[in-house]
Task: inverse folding
């Protein structure tokens, strides 16, 4: 069960982050040319891959130490619940949904503005923009791969999920050459948020050596309770918001 | 400093939610270490994300409430 849990969360988490990075790369490439844009993105992917090896490899050997497990559990829990909260707020209308087309147009406009400035530094701006965007978005994917891969002893599956998502995003992005607006980003973030929060809580308990009822199967209860809670919170927030709007009008 | 800020932003964007969650986990650890009540610790770990999410969403709802100055 843990292999697919790890692989799926890495696949979805990396996918959603790279879709956002792809939007920036496309916008920069269209305005400034592809050489600088692609070099920046590829360099960032290389650095992120190195980070997985440098941090992930030693962590695999010490993850059994209880305080390391506790630390990884807390990090995973905080990271996962952050995504879960954001998705709930977006589903309920408390936060606006992320639109790739809007982000794309904003970045195209931004690049055109910089291009018209006399201080523009040409290809270096393209490199720096795509490197920064890919690195920052990819860093979240690295977090997911390292934490869930080491804690569930499924590093290979986590890396495989991330690599699959990277290849799929690159191929689809190359074929379409426009932002991937059809990708259900909020749903993907929601699923990963549920998976990481549940596993983070479970793994924290493992680090503490608490006796989980039914061992690994406790994950099912954790996932189910978070799904039900999210559904209730979204429904309640939507109803409250509708009441507020009625009051105003 | 910028790197630390970026890293911190990756795990905490709602300080209230993160604080409740971490306090809950610390409480679960203390109870388990001091009393060895495993079931209580499990329940606290389970309820930590639930409570912190409820508080975070309710806080956002209050901010949207008409006439709320916050």
Result:
């Amino acid at each position: 069960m843990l292999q697919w849990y790890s692989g799926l969360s890495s696949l979805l988490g990396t996918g959603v982050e790279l879709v956002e990075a792809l939007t920036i790369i496309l916008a920069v490439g269209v305005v400034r040319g592809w050489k600088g844009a692609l070099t920046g993105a590829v360099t960032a992917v290389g650095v992120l891959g190195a980070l997985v090896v440098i941090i992930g490899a030693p962590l695999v050997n010490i993850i059994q130490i209880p305080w390391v497990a506790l630390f990884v559990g807390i990090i995973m829990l905080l990271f996962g619940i952050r995504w879960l909260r954001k998705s709930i707020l977006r589903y309920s209308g408390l936060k606006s949904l992320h639109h790739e087309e809007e982000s794309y147009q904003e970045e195209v406009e931004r690049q055109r503005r910089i291009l018209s400035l006399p201080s523009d530094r040409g290809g270096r701006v393209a490199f720096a923009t795509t490197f920064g965007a890919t690195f920052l978005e990819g860093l979240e994917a690295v977090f997911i791969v390292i934490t869930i891969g080491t804690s569930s002893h499924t590093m290979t599956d986590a890396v495989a999920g991330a690599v699959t998502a990277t290849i799929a995003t690159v191929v689809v992005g190359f074929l379409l050459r426009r932002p991937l607006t059809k990708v259900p980003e909020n749903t993907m973030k929601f699923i990963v948020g549920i998976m990481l929060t549940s596993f983070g809580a479970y793994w924290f308990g493992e680090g503490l050596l608490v006796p989980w009822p039914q061992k690994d199967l406790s994950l099912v209860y954790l996932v189910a309770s978070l799904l039900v809670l999210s559904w209730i919170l979204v429904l309640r927030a939507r109803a409250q918001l509708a009441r507020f709007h009625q009051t105003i009008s | 400093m910028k790197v630390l800020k970026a890293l911190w932003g990756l795990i905490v964007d709602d300080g209230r939610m993160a604080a409740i969650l971490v306090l809950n986990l610390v409480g679960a650890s203390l109870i388990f270490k001091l009393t060895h009540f495993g079931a209580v610790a499990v329940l606290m770990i389970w309820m930590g994300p639930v409570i912190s999410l409820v508080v975070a969403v309710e806080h956002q709802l209050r901010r949207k409430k008409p006439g709320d100055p916050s």
Observations:
- The mean pLDDT of chain A is 89.
- The CA atoms of residues 1 and 216 of chain A lie 9 Å apart.
- The longest helix of chain A spans residues 2-32.
